[in-house]
């Protein structure tokens, strides 16, 4: 499970680097595309955090 979080964080960092480098060249199309990808990755991270929270809660409180 920790590998999933590390891969998601590395992909977010790579997408931010792509957004930084290709901001001047392909501004109109790739900016919208990367915004959608970052939004999807943030939703995935929120789901993983909720999963870890509930797993911790049920594992240690019951």
Offer a concise description of the structure.
Helix 1 packs antiparallel against helix 2. The mean pLDDT is 78. This protein is mainly alpha-helical and 62 residues long.
Give a written overview of the molecule.
With 62 residues, the chain is an all-alpha fold. It has one domain. The protein contains 2 helices and no strands. Keywords: Membrane, Transmembrane, Transmembrane helix.
**Can you give the helix content as a percent range?**
over 70%
| pLDDT averaged residue by residue | 78
Distance between the termini: 21 Å
- H/I helix tally: 2
- Alpha-beta classification: mainly alpha
Q: What order do the helices and strands follow?
A: HH
Dominant shape = elongated
> Can you tell me the number of structural domains?
1
Q: How would a textbook summarize the main sheet?
A: none
Our Rg estimate from Cα atoms comes to 16 Å
Unreliable runs: none
Percentage beta strand:
under 5%
Total strands: the figure is 0
Keywords: Membrane, Transmembrane, Transmembrane helix
Transmembrane segments: 34-55
Element layout with pairings:
Layout: H1 2-21, H2 27-61
Helix pairs in contact: 1-2
Q: What key phrases describe this protein's structure?
A:
transmembrane; 62 residues; elongated; mainly alpha; membrane; 0% strand; transmembrane helix
């Amino acid at each position: 499970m920790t590998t999933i979080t590390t891969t998601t964080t590395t992909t977010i960092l790579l997408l931010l680097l792509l957004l930084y480098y290709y901001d001047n060249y392909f501004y109109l199309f790739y900016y919208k595309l990367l915004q959608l990808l970052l939004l999807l990755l943030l939703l995935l991270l929120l789901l993983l955090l909720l999963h870890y929270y509930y797993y911790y809660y049920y594992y240690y409180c019951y």
